[in-house]
Every structure is written in C-alpha cells, then in structure tokens.
Amino acid sequence: MNEILWVVFPYICLTVFVVGHFWRYRYDKFGWTTRSSQLYEDRLLRWGSPLFHFGILAVFLGHVMGLGIPKSWTEAVGISEGLYHFLAVSIGAIAGFGTVVGLAILIYRRRTVGPVFSATTRMDKVMYLFLATVIVLGLVNTVVANIFGHYDYRDGVSVWFRGIFRFDLHPELMAEAPLSFQLHGLAAIALFALWPFTRLVHVFSAPVGYLTRPYIVYRSRDDRIASHSPRRGWEDDR
Amino acid sequence: MRVMAQMAMVMNLDKCIGCHTCSVTCKQAWTNRSGTEYVWFNNVETRPGQGYPRTYEDQETWKGGWQLNRRGRLTLKGGGRLRKLLTIFSNPKMPSIQDYYEPWTYDYSTLTDAPAQEHTPVARPKSLISGQDMKVTWSANWDDDLGGSAATAERDPILKKVGDKVRFEFEQTFMFYLPRICEHCLNPSCAASCPSGAIYKRSEDGIVLVDQDRCRGWRMCISGCPYKKVYFNHRTGKAEKCTFCFPRVEVGLPTVCSETCVGRLRYIGLVLYDADKVLEAASTTDEQGLYEAQREVFLDPSDPAVRREAERAGIPHDWVEAAQRSPVYALINRYKVALPLHPEYRTMPMVWYIPPLSPVVDVIKETGEDPEDRGNLFAAIDALRIPIEYLAELFTAGDVAPVDLVLRKLAAMRSYMRDINLGRDPDPTIPQAVGMSEEELYDMFRLLALAKYDERYVIPPAHAEQAHSLEELATECSLDYEGGPGMGGSGPFGEGSGGTTPIAVENFHMLQDRQTADTAAAPAGKGARVNLLNWDGRGAPSGLFPPKPDDSESEADQR
Ligand code: SF4
Ligand code: SF4
C-alpha cells in the first residue's frame, strides 16, 4: 500500500506532468495562456491576484528551502535548528496566510461575478478544488503541526522528496508522517498530474526574458507562423 | 542609414461622412467572433467626443505610449520592465469592459416564438458577456454625431486641453469624424510592453502583429498602446489587434476598411525610412517638434543614395518604385498636408490624417458668405480659434502653425480649382500664397479630389520567392491540412485552444455556418460570420444576405 501511494502514484503523476506539458506545448500553443479575466472585473482582482501570486511565490521558495536543502547543509552554515524553525514557521505562516486570503478573494470573485463565473471551465473548477486543498493543508501543516505537534519534516518528508530525483524512494518515511502531511503530499502530487491540462501552465511562461530583450521585436515575414500549417514530415515542402 | 519599408495610410478627414462602413466591414472580416464582440480594429469617432474606449487620450490616467525621463531618455510611460513584471498579476492601467462597453444582442426569438398574447412581445437586450438581461448604457458610438454631447463632451480630454473657456453650446459646436485603426507605429509601445515578446513588427513592411501562439495573455500591450488599439479577446485570453489586412496587402489589395470606404478617403502606400534615426526622433525634447522630427525620418525614394541603400538593405526594386509613386509619401512630405495623430505619444504613428476644413467651411456657409472664396476662407481660418486649436491638439501636440498651413492649402485648392471649373482664368497668386506651385496644387487636387483607385492605393505585392509561406497564395488546397476542416468550435481548454485555424479554413466554416445557422447573432463560435476578407468590393459577398426563395441563381447570373 505504501509503495503504491508513495512510489508508484508519484511517479505516474510526475510522468503525466512532464509528458503532458510537452504534449500541450506541442499541440496547443494557442491555448497556452493565463486566461486572465481582468477585463470583466478588477476591483477584487486588484487585491486578490497580487496577494495570491506573491504569496505563492514565497511559498514556492520556502518549499525549495525546506524540501530541497538537506538539514546538514543549513547546519553546516551555522543555522541552528531553533532559528530555522522560527524562520520557517513565521515566514511560512505569513506567506501562506497571504496566499489563502488571496485565493479566497479570487474564488469568491469567480463565483459571484457573473461574467467571470461563466468564463470558468470545468477544468478550472477541478483545478481550484485541488489547489485550494493543497494550500489549506499546507498552511495547516505550517501552523498546527509546528506549533502543537513536533514533527520535523526535514528528517522525513524532505528526505523522501529528494529521493524522487535519485530514484531511491523510501515510502516508509511518508507513512510515518502525520496525516495532514500525507494528505498535503497526495493532493499536491495529484495537482501536478492535472497541471498541464489547466491554466496553470502559464507558470512556465513567466516572462523573465523581458528584462533583457530589446524593446521592439522585428521578425521577417518568412518566419512568422504562417496560417497555413506545416505538412507532415515526408510532405514538408519547406 | 538603414533603410526600411513601411506600409502606411493617410485618411482625408474632409471626406469622411461618418457612415461606419469601414468599421462594419472590418468587423465582419476580423472580429465577428465571440470574445471579440467589443473589439473594433477600426472605429469612427465623432469629435469632439470621448473616443473609444472612453477618454483613451487622457494619458495621465491611462499611461500609454512613451515619455522622456528626467535624463531625457525615452521610457515607457506605464513604467519600465521591472515595474511591468511586478504589476503583471493585476495590470493597474488596463481599461475594464465598462470603459469600452458591455456588448449585447437581442433576444430576437421571443418575437417569433412568443405565444399569442395581448401585448406585443419585446426583444430584450442580453449581455454577450454574462448572458443576462442588461441595461444598455454605452456603446462604441454612443456619442455619434454629438448625440448626448451636451452632457458628455466636456469629458473629451482634448476639449479640456483646448481650454476651460469652451462652453459646449449649440451655437459653438463644430464636428468632424475621426476614423481610427492601429497606427502600425515605427516605435510601437505595445510591442515594447509585451513581456512575452509576442508582438512584432514585420521587417519587410512594418506591419505590427501579435503572434497568437506566443501571446500568454499578460495584458501589458493593452495598457501600453496609447491609442488603445490592442484588445483582449476575453474568450481566448489573447491580445488581438488590427492586422493591416496583411493577407490582402501581401497580394496587392488594399485593406478591407479602405476598399469599402464610402468616402474613398483612405490612401495606402509605402514609405521608406531610416531605422537608425527613429529612436533619436522619438526622443525629441520639444513635443511640438515631434511632427517635424518624424517627417525627417522618412527618406526620399527618388534620391539615388537612398535607392542604393534600399537595394543594399534587400528591398526589392519594384518596392522602391512603388515607394516613389506612394500617395502616402506625397501627402506627408511633398504636399505636406497629412499630419500624424498624437505625435506626442512618441510611438511614431504611421496612419496620418489630412485635417478637415469642414468646420471652417460650415461656419462660413452659415453666415451666408461664399465658402469657396479664398479671402473668406483665410479670414475664417484666422478667426476660428477653437476648432483649429482642437485640431492642433490632435495632430501636432498643440502647435497651431502646421495645422493652419494645411488648412490654408486646402482652402487654396478649393478656390483655385473653382476658378478652373467655372472656366475662369486660374489665379496663380493663390498657390503662391501657400508656398506651392500651380502644378503642385493641381496634382494635389488630383490626388485628393479625383482620388483614382490606382492612385489611392499603390501596394506592391509580396514577393513570389516568399510566397511559399503566404497562405493565400498556397498552391495546395488550404483546407487540406492536418486536422482538416473538422475544426471550429472550442478546444478542450476553452475557446480557441487546440491550435490556430488557418484563415482559409475559418472562412470556409464561417460561410458554411452562416448558410446553415438559424440564429444570426448566436455567439456560438468563431464560425458564424461572413467573410469580407477576400471580397473585391464588387457585388455582394456570398453569405451576407440570405438566399432568395427560388430564381435567385438566374437573377444573379443576369446581373
Ligand atoms: S497604435 Fe498599433 S502599433 Fe502603435 S502602439 Fe498601438 S497597437 Fe502598437
Ligand atoms: S467608410 Fe469611409 S466615409 Fe465611412 S466612416 Fe469609414 S472612413 Fe468615414
């Protein structure tokens, strides 16, 4: 059972994540967008969207720290257990709280503003459900598990997580973790499988290249995407 | 010198009758789809008026275009790159649908489907955004012909600049129409604002396009364009803008708006310019110097040095020749009667306008004097402060002198030609008074008043060696592509996902749908529209009118 939940399931989902993105980018560049609904409404969006997005960016960095960097490394540079704990809980709680508030505003907006609601696809709704579950459970982990319980995820979940990339998973590490951590993990893994089929793909087009490219882009007529699409390989006449 | 070619347009405002044919045909060709109901690549505004979207010219609010920073360097008015990325989650300057208008249709079916009842059934307006009943309060042309202007015209940002003394009273009104499309700027701030780099300027003809496969819906172009000519398709989540009808222009046909213009007032031609001088010209310190600065960026295509450089830059020989015959170049640089719209936005716009003399003529007519007499016209140009200052705010950043001179030239043409038409001796002092020769004035008359089709449009086709990638010239059947004509409707991830539909295929579907659909305004999909894109202006495009009952075929043949 543990093997299925913490080895097979994650790998299946991650495969879907990678292959799914490849497939979507290959066949649906036109659908690859944020699907912004700012045109319909921007009073709520003005607060909700930055709160959520900046919050989730901070949360992401927190996960890179917490999951990606082994405990021994932080200790080697002299960050004590107590200090790390304090930083993780405080910054994590603030970022998580911002994210949850932002998400709540956005979901409220989506449900109550007529045009926004009618522009919501079924995939969006599924995605919101998983995203909200993952985020709320995550916040519960940060606050409840750190303040009331004493589970050090850096000896458990994090080690299991890094195992993914070394193809050396220890499912028992996850099975020993508190239930809320397990649920958070499972929901997140499922979200990764959904990812390529939702608007979340826009994360991968974060336009950092804008900072360095020249302002005006020139392109020749030849390399524009012709509205006449290329033939299959052996017929390609170009 | 780095020579580049630009496809450009001039509109002669005196001839615009405000019929909106251009807007409607453009819409039929390009934006008659759900998601673009409110999108008018071409719109015609009544001035004074707020324009579309409302008060878009107020850049202190909308922050479109460029400005000079404290060190005199050109920067985006809406903030630099970092600021753009930091506000990407909610663009603070993006107009909302209320600044355009909420598009609607009518519930027509109740008119025919309602059961027998005492009162006549009513077709209620239904929002095309939410599908709910709505109250219609504004549209793309709500203040057409100054309708309701007593209440709303004081919000016109240009009227505000002209001075607070202006009271919008009936006796003082003047009015003209301003048709607008994307300016296909030399220094496009929409492209500069796009975080994904999806908006590009075509190096061959300068047409500014949005790559639909690269646009990610960050919405920065919409606030970046000072003319508000990039629109957000709310169904596909992508930006769309005027394409200068590139599939037509590539084969030498004028744009749909020009082809169908009732007043025949649009001119299309090439302009050669020096790409190395664009930045410097756009950074001219004095706003009122921008008109001259932009004029100086253009190169004289009959100058041998320019022709040599053009050849070196790979511009085909027939293009250089077309540039010499270009009506646009002639109106801008030879007769100097065309002026740019809002040069102070520093985007170097490439759709120029001949300001209208009609506000002046109208006033003279009202006094009962002769509106074609030079003395009367010149005196009136001097006296009519408000219309002329208003025009200057539109076309020369408030500098009255160039507008004044253009109007004098138009007035001179009017009275000089009247003498000829009445069989009197032409008066050579008239052209002299505006610094032109008699021959020049006559040539200008020919271009402006006779406006022959092949003199209005000098459009060299794209080159055969490039034709491979041009869909309209494809030798194979364009419907025969992977996925086939089974396209149309929505993809799995919302409207429009699942790959772009080739234009020819979309045409095929729209015709088919239109012929077989039972509702006219169903926002059912991108299929339901009539194609005017490759209509040549003769006869009626197929699908525009429902088929006639029986002998429609033979009747059409006789015609
Ligand atoms: S007018 Fe056209 S080219 Fe110029 S900034 Fe606006 S959208 Fe871009
Ligand atoms: S079709 Fe021509 S005359 Fe009519 S509104 Fe448009 S530009 Fe003016």
UniProtKB/TrEMBL annotation, chain A:
Record SUPFAM superfamilies: Respiratory nitrate reductase 1 gamma chain (SSF103501)
Membrane-spanning residues: 6-23, 44-64, 84-108, 128-148, 179-197
Compartments it resides in: Cell membrane
Record bears the keyword Heme: yes
Pfam families, alphabetized: Nitrate_red_gam
Superkingdom in the source lineage: Bacteria
Domain (NarG-like) ranges: 2-221
Keywords from the named record: Cell membrane, Electron transport, Heme, Iron, Membrane, Metal-binding, Nitrate assimilation, Oxidoreductase, Transmembrane, Transmembrane helix, Transport
Keyword Repeat set for record: no
Membrane topology type: Multi-pass membrane protein
Protein name as catalogued: Nitrate reductase gamma subunit
